[in-house]
Amino acid sequence: MQQAALIYKELGIDTLQEYVAFLQEDCHVVRSEGIEAQTRVELVCNQRSIVATVHVIHSDLIACGEIGLSMSAQAALSAEPGEKIEISQAPALDSLSQMRAKIFGHRLERNAFDAIMKDISAGRYANIHIAAFLTAMAAHRANLQEVTDLTSSMVDVGEHLSWGTTPVADKHCVGGLPGNRTTPIVVAIVSACGLTMPKTSSRAITSPAGTADVVEVMTPVNLSVEDMKRVVREQGGCFVWGGSLALSPADDLLIRVARPLELDSDAQLVASVLSKKIAAGATHVVIDIPVGPTAKVRNREQANHLENVLTHVGFANGLNIRVIQSNGSAPVGRGIGPALEARDVLKVLRCEHDAPADLRERALRLAGELLEFCQTVPAGQGLEKATDVLDNKAAWSKFKAICQAQGGFKEPEVAPIQYVVHANQAGRIKTVDNRRLSRLAKLLGAPEAKTAGLDLHVNLNDHVESGQPLFTLHAQADGEMDYAKNYLDTHPLFLIEAV
């Protein structure tokens, strides 16, 4: 089909990652091409092409013969005001029939996943298509072969790094436990011991902060592949947001849609985690699965199933996996939210007297396991080695060196608006609701508002007096603080048992 050309007009409309084209209702292209609202169109400019969803304008915001773009679409095309943009109806996607088959519960073969991941990574799927795929994978539990094939397909559509050495260490936590920010500490310890640990991390999906969100408070994480290689070559480790790289690119698009859905199925979780590890060139990965009544993984049965899938899919894709099932009954550390969690990480690395003991202990255990798994130290000596490296400040020195190599280090900032919540009765803290903690932190603005979140003053099983401070809310805007207070009125975080 011959492509029509329209003149680009800048509108400054942010639709996040969704590519949107804005057309006037009387535009000749709209009439002649049979285009209407929600039509998928292919746009070409500067020898780049994308597929976008049409929104029709019924006002004089743009003129006939003009086209507006969402900010993400404009960036993808590198379009400048006044440039011509060619437009035509997007070709039909054969992979959508495979996606629909999954919706109806059919098993998919490797070639089906290849086609779906190729189209997603190329930006040919609208958000609604991605949401349908994610929902289908969650509603109809994928078998081991499907998860293995999905993982391989996600790797194959992106770059695959090689470090010319072995072992290459990595670590991941499946999430669901607020404040459990062990990764920066583990990377600092392990790389200080001489191992190669090129850590790529995601941003938050269902939590108020991901590792990339937290580390970004202290140092740049949007590194190119070339910069990542330079940092690892100089320091042995790095902290990089996976979305800034072309490693398993379909995963980042899936995550962006999964975030507002708060959907994180076992199949997608495993494929997401392992595809990034494989693409980043890891050989040995320690995975932490917190288990608790309000964690992401609720019980041992679920944890055992997830461990089985992780180890099977990892082995099938050439990864050595060691899974650690940990206590997920309560949050870890005191801060929940990017800046507050970064503060806790720094306290542990600096060996400050008020560093959160639970965060320190978890990080040391995982670092020790990884050192033993990579045979850097004999079995049974990993924890001792990790503790020595942390206590003699070698890990802190390594962390600072990595940050400097990535663009510099800065201290976390503090939220301008704070509110202290007090206990309304005396007693023992019997339970802590991790999910409500996460929800509250997100209402306060985390992770987008870096200083937003909660600062906990008590722990599970602590005895509290009536009127004692339980936690402090941190926000950057009054409206978000009000949302959080209203939520607290009907959603208590702690169950305090009178004694």
How does this structure look, described?
The chain folds into three domains: 86 residues, Barwin-like endoglucanases, CATH 2.40.40; 207 residues, Nucleoside phosphorylase/phosphoribosyltransferase catalytic domain (Pyrimidine Nucleoside Phosphorylase, Chain A, domain 2, 3-Layer(aba) Sandwich), CATH 3.40.1030.10; 81 residues, Alpha-Beta Complex (Aldehyde Oxidoreductase, domain 3). Helix 12 links the parallel strand 10 and strand 11. The strands form five sheets. A six-stranded mixed beta barrel has the order 1-5-2-4-3-6. The chain has a four-stranded antiparallel β-sheet with strand order 12-15-17-13. Strands 7-10-11 form a three-stranded parallel β-sheet, with helices on both faces. The radius of gyration is 24 Å and the shape is globular. Helices cover 41% and strands 21% of the residues. The mean pLDDT is 93. Helix 7 packs across helix 14. The chain is α/β, with parallel strands linked by helices and 499 residues long.
What's the layout of helices and strands?
Layout lengths: L3 E10 L6 E5 L3 H5 L7 E6 L2 E10 L8 E5 H7 L6 E6 L5 H9 L6 H12 L5 H13 L4 H13 L12 E5 L9 H10 L4 E5 L9 H6 L8 H11 L1 E5 L7 H13 L4 H14 L4 E8 L8 H17 L3 E8 L7 E2 L1 H12 L7 H17 L8 H10 L2 H13 L10 E6 L4 E6 L1 H10 L9 E4 L6 E2 L4 E7 L2 H13 L3 E4 L2
Parallel strand pairs: 1-5, 2-4, 7-10, 8-9, 10-11
Antiparallel strand pairs: 1-6, 2-5, 3-4, 3-6, 12-15, 13-17, 14-16, 14-18, 15-17
Helix pairs in contact: 3-4, 3-5, 4-6, 4-10, 5-10, 6-11, 6-12, 7-14, 7-16, 9-16, 11-12, 14-15
